[in-house]
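cache lookup: miss for this entity combination. No prior model stored, computing from scratch. Input as submitted by user K.M.:
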Amino acid sequence: MGVLWYTEWLSPLEAHVHGIKEVIFDGWTKYQRVTIAKTGSFGKVLFLDGYAQSSEYDEFIYHESLVHPAMITHPTPRKVLIVGGGEGATLREVLKHDTVEHVVMVDIDQELVELAKKYLPEWHKGAFDDPRVELLFMDGKEYIEKTREKFDVVILDLTDPIKDTPGVLLYTREFYEAVKKILNKEGVMVTQATSTRYYINAFTIIGNTLREVFPYVRLYKVFVPAFYSEWGFAIGTISRDPLSIPQEEVKRRLKAMDLKYLDPEAYAFLFHIPRYMLEKMKKYTQVSTLENPLELAPWNHQT
Amino acid sequence: MGVLWYTEWLSPLEAHVHGIKEVIFDGWTKYQRVTIAKTGSFGKVLFLDGYAQSSEYDEFIYHESLVHPAMITHPTPRKVLIVGGGEGATLREVLKHDTVEHVVMVDIDQELVELAKKYLPEWHKGAFDDPRVELLFMDGKEYIEKTREKFDVVILDLTDPIKDTPGVLLYTREFYEAVKKILNKEGVMVTQATSTRYYINAFTIIGNTLREVFPYVRLYKVFVPAFYSEWGFAIGTISRDPLSIPQEEVKRRLKAMDLKYLDPEAYAFLFHIPRYMLEKMKKYTQVSTLENPLELAPWNHQT
Amino acid sequence: MGVLWYTEWLSPLEAHVHGIKEVIFDGWTKYQRVTIAKTGSFGKVLFLDGYAQSSEYDEFIYHESLVHPAMITHPTPRKVLIVGGGEGATLREVLKHDTVEHVVMVDIDQELVELAKKYLPEWHKGAFDDPRVELLFMDGKEYIEKTREKFDVVILDLTDPIKDTPGVLLYTREFYEAVKKILNKEGVMVTQATSTRYYINAFTIIGNTLREVFPYVRLYKVFVPAFYSEWGFAIGTISRDPLSIPQEEVKRRLKAMDLKYLDPEAYAFLFHIPRYMLEKMKKYTQVSTLENPLELAPWNHQT
Amino acid sequence: MGVLWYTEWLSPLEAHVHGIKEVIFDGWTKYQRVTIAKTGSFGKVLFLDGYAQSSEYDEFIYHESLVHPAMITHPTPRKVLIVGGGEGATLREVLKHDTVEHVVMVDIDQELVELAKKYLPEWHKGAFDDPRVELLFMDGKEYIEKTREKFDVVILDLTDPIKDTPGVLLYTREFYEAVKKILNKEGVMVTQATSTRYYINAFTIIGNTLREVFPYVRLYKVFVPAFYSEWGFAIGTISRDPLSIPQEEVKRRLKAMDLKYLDPEAYAFLFHIPRYMLEKMKKYTQVSTLENPLELAPWNHQT
């Protein structure tokens, strides 16, 4: 029986607990509590403010699913912006596309990125040293609003829109409009869109909100063991529906990279939303705006 | 913060905990500890000896996935045997096939079935009263070894092969040979095959074992939220590969029933085993036999 | 490793968890959630709204310590009022004093008392059937304000003054003044006074409040294993300081009863408050009044 | 709701959990897992292999109670041996006696002592730097068997005799005989004697074993909040019964030191064992020997 446990409060009446074999780092950056630990079941795990962000065991399922649908939807992604993604694994996946010439990664938390560089080499695998990468430590929203650069793909690898945190702003219509302004004409954006089980409301509302801004929007999901649930994503594009990409192109482009999870069958199934879920989603018609934003309950933000 | 919690020990260093709003029943039958409770996240849940067997919220994902691939693999299932499945939900799904004329359900634990009849109407939905059903309370292994009846489909809805429990015997080559003997010439059997995450060894070994006995064997899996992981199944057939069934037939037969989860896309994806999982599975070459059976560690069987 | 656990939240960052061998009763009365269960370490335990009220293993330490100092402080207690104490164990201890002629027990929760009668015979030991007992189901505060009877001893065996619960009123100066009015001229009252560790503030403030009303007030405490801490009590008397009772009288009167915990040495040590505790107590000068009542944080009152 | 929790398994069906505000150190020395963390309720805590050894909040209760009865029982303690006690707090208390000329402290775990020096200044308060102190890193048993020095007082501040750990040997008759050999003619030894609640058997058996070796033996206990129970100690002396010391001498010698817990009343009550505990103790007649040692179940020694 383990002695030190990390508890993820999925709601006030549900939790998942990880026995910790050893704490590698535990402390507070300017923005959040960071815990890096060896868990009993998922190897090394990065926890931020009470939740696993990714695990050595299965981070590739999350990161491959976040990155590649957006990248493949763009015919030739050359310039990519990543907001968040401090572990460096989103960056690692982006760099696998050989069309990529320049990646800007903006993370507000420099201390977190330093910790990742030091303690999470299995994640970034040296990606931060790639000459195509420009790493900025600042508020992603501010960057997007001020930059004069244009991007083919924008990837939002963010924490959830928890009530009373600045993250709430990064899921609003106004923010997505700002993102659209810095996209090239075949531009694509993707955002993580929370758990489809614990926050089916958020998953739905993020889709609703994107549809106010982009002509093509697709919600998708993948099961990530370390999240105990299917995880949602939402993609918005200007000129090509992700579901209209020829099968042959998907296969060819996936094959060019050495992926652990996303093969063509898994790729196709990402976009399958089962009937029982669709029925639940019908209830949520909200659009997230600055005035009436999507906000999630802060189950475990006390410590 | 909840006060009463049900803890599922997924390993000595990982657990999932359910806040319990109210205990509906907690006690011991001759065979096991039965707890029926209203949980915070999954509605009413049936727990046996420390693990959720099925939840009001998503039992249909498990039961549809257990029952229909086997039923559809048989061209015209008329006679069906269910071993286990005390909740009555497996029975409910079997009865949705209008070719079915006779179902024998054998469960060793009469007290459990009585509790299910009383407290779990959302599961069985009156299935026990269907005139096609014959309900027997006895050891399933003994029934299979002694019966003179033949079946089109045999469904093994069992608890896991935990060390030092009689369930171990129901996952051996010898047992599957006994099952094969009571199958008709187009016969199909299916068994639950444990969690693909926590017990990838068991999942693999059950497949290995079936392949010693049946000409066609397919492993498949589905994500069940209340199990926090994808759940495995193994199907063994005498004359038709489940993957050879024409798409049209799958669609037609699924459409005839009112299912909540299994649509044709979900059905196809059941059989997708991702590359990273296949790599893990290569390590396990054991066949489970009476002499050298598959046995899982009893994390939480003390109470 | 246990599967069903009762969690007592001692603070948002501390808890004690009891493995539950079997739930005997779990449900809601009109006033509270009642759970009666066999625990791993304390035998049968009665939990109310998230906290152990008393355990088969050591309820006698609490009940003997609550009842006898007050009873012994009165020279000849004949008429006794108990408010709360649904288990019947406080009643049982009062009846051990052979001077007692009439006991009125007032508990607001009739369903709880019925459950205690049925499931907690080890506590009440038939006390409810004693002909000296008058059992009333009503609000204790209302009873005290309206009754025309007078009592020698009033025992307040209450739940803690949790914010937003009616219990808050039963720890105010105004309430203690009402109690004083129904006491005879040698009258004594005692109240449970919360944990001296978790609520040293409450323990102190209850003492402060009593001192506004009674000429003699003594705080005391005893270690109760099932509470993981020393438990506090406060006694207020009209004409005799509990510490002025001759040793001989204490010995004689204790000896006349068959007690499991309170021998003369343990009795004397009840009133010992160590230096480090006294230093903490200096900080709390509040008096609890209707206008500015003592209120404790409701750690676990959601369910 | 906390996210990182330290769980002390008091039995397979009881635990106490501490919300951890920050992990200061977590790692393995050659001998044990050491976790130093800021807890929600007890300030900084040192945990070894799953159990709180002492807390900033109340370590003085434990250390004062361990050290001073033995020291006071000796008329003029000049030479003192401490085995264990890596935090340095036992040493700190010993040095408060101004008769002390030389203290040998032997701890097997040098890394632990280094961690204590660095992270636990509130415990040792510089005691390691006192010129009277000789600090040795070696096996305490070996030291006692080989040394030619003699001591007035020997203090055994050890971890519990957990099955399959070397600590088991330090609670046997043979070991106590070795201790006796290095005592001067008025010599006194004291050992921690486990929890009186969780291990009343161990508490009793340690007393039984000492009585085989020493003419005067007294068991005593004190409530330590961070241990959720009364903690036991056992004292063995060659020439003076601890209970025969004149009250005046106890008062005078206690007063000479600046103690937070042990005043004369608290001191007297240490030796009070209540009737219900005495009754439980009658069951345990074992003497711990090399052949048949006292061994406690290792609830949580897996990690």
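stored under new cache key. The longest strand of chain A covers residues 14-28.
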